[in-house]
Amino acid sequence: MSLIDTLIFFLIIWWPIFFILLPIGFEPITKYDKDTEYVKSAPNKPNMLKKFLLATLIAIIFTTLIWILDYHNIFSLKKVFL
Hints:
By secondary structure, the chain is mainly α. It has one domain (3-81). Helices cover 59% and strands 0% of the residues. The protein has helices at 3-21, 48-71, 77-81. Helix 1 packs antiparallel against helix 2.
């Protein structure tokens, strides 16, 4: 896989992983005032940085695994899709 192929694969894998991680640890706002601008379904602590970094780490591990398999001609995405 070339560098561009690897970066595209990383980005395509990163998004679903990130969306899978979003609802983990969800706690709705318990104190709801009618004066605030928050809706009842808004998270109390979204922990976006933690989820962003975890999605990045998982995507890096998965991309590295696929790159190693492709480098050693064990598995190739080009052979699967072409």
